[in-house]
Design brief:
By secondary structure, the protein is mainly beta. It has 3 helices and 11 strands. The two termini are 27 Å apart.
């Protein structure tokens, strides 16, 4: 049963990925479906231009932001492949499911210029050795919220700042309602790389002074786990 489902899903992904390529990718981008429960089978949900990559606190790519503001998330193990196939400025097609908050959980990404398709299906090529991770650092970040990230139950568990910083946090760490345009600061453990600063927060506040005060009152925590 599972094999049949995987086969049908793979066939659906490839059919959607190839749709339009025969016409040079000239088909108009469809509108994302209404917010609601994600579909059981993946569908073509967005086309757009890559603005930037997002990363986990360890520096692993786990998402894309398109120039129209669309948020595309994917499993970190796809990050290196998607990063190589979809650079900032590239126009892409995204196949996946739309979460309740409008974020796309991608199962495949297609570069509309090259036709390269990245998904979970093994390519047959030898797996590249894992890259060396940058060492985790204690970092501070402050700015204005551009987008609030949510977990599977709709709980706020991170923010993207206008200045590019990405902050992940436990849902119980920030007890106030977060909205776009709100000032936000955090102190945590993470990395600073090509995709910008990404941290797992140990303390947060409206500004760095408040975040530092909260950090002084917070016991040390272990290194962060990979983000979804």
């Amino acid at each position: 049963m599972r094999t049949a489902l995987v086969t049908r899903t793979r066939a659906a992904v490839l059919a959607v990925a190839l749709c339009g390529l025969r016409f040079g990718g000239a088909a108009a981008a469809p509108s994302p479906p209404p917010h609601g429960p994600a579909s059981a089978m993946p569908a073509l949900v967005a086309e757009g231009t890559v603005a930037r990559h997002l990363s986990t606190p360890y520096g692993d790519s786990n998402g894309l932001r398109l120039t129209d503001g669309t948020l595309v998330l994917f499993a970190p193990h796809l990050g290196a492949r998607i990063g190589a196939a979809a650079a900032p400025g590239d126009r892409i097609r995204v196949i996946g499911n739309v979460a309740d908050d409008g974020a796309i959980r991608a199962v495949a990404v297609v570069n509309l210029a090259s036709g390269a398709t990245i998904d979970d299906e093994p390519s047959g090529a030898p797996a590249a050795p894992p890259r060396a991770r940058a060492p985790l650092q204690r970092l501070e970040v402050a700015g204005t919220i551009d987008l609030v990230l949510h977990g599977p139950r709709g709980e706020a568990n991170g923010v993207i700042l206008v200045n590019g910083g990405v902050v992940y946090f436990r849902p119980d760490l920030v007890r106030t309602r977060l909205t776009r345009g709100q000032p936000f600061a955090a102190i945590g453990i993470g990395t600073r790389g090509g995709a910008g600063v990404a941290i797992e927060a140990i303390a947060a506040g409206a500004d760095l002074e408040a975040a530092r005060a909260a950090a002084r009152a917070t016991p040390a925590r272990p290194a962060p786990a990979n983000q979804p």
